[in-house]
Design goal:
This protein has 152 residues and is mainly β. It is built from 1 helix and 9 strands. It has an 8-stranded antiparallel barrel.
Length: 152
């Protein structure tokens, strides 16, 4: 039976651009302007360009499409990409608009499937590992994720 082992927590600072209603739903871009990650085996900052090109459907759920670059404290670069689903609750809408009350893990459906790529042999294990993330939104707006490694 698979097990989930918490690998790290990460935070991403966001700036929101509302594209608006289009032919596929409501497009919102959450630009990643910084952040950090921390775990027993990995620690560092979010660098360079990154964003979530979220599409909100008529069902009240956002489909996440995220890319970012992690730089570890020992100078390795990791490309991260994930898809996910978030339930767009009134609390999520409030925080995205500048509200000050954080959501809690489990307040809404908010899960991702991060995938990592790196050429650095110290982190090669991440190329061959499945991950699951659970998120919440905090003031800023800022997103916080607990990222779990899937293992046997």
């Amino acid at each position: 039976m698979p097990q989930l082992i918490e690998e790290f927590t990460y935070y991403a600072d966001l700036v929101v651009d509302q594209v608006g209603n289009g032919p596929y739903g409501t497009r919102t871009i959450f630009n990643v302007t910084g952040g950090e990650f921390d775990g027993e085996r990995i620690k560092g900052t979010i660098v360079g360009a990154g964003a979530d090109w979220m599409l909100i459907g008529p069902d009240g759920y956002g489909r996440l499409d995220v890319r970012a670059t992690f730089k570890t404290d020992d100078d390795a670069f990791l490309y991260m990409q994930y898809f996910g689903v978030i339930e767009i609750t009134p609390a999520i809408l409030d925080l995205a608009g500048g509200g000050e009350r954080a959501t809690e893990f489990g307040d809404q459906y908010f899960f991702t499937s991060p995938r990592f790529e790196t050429g650095d042999s110290r982190y090669g294990w991440m190329n061959e590992t499945m991950f699951l993330g659970q998120g919440r939104l905090v003031p800023g707006p800022r997103v916080e994720y607990h990222v779990f490694r899937v293992t046997n």
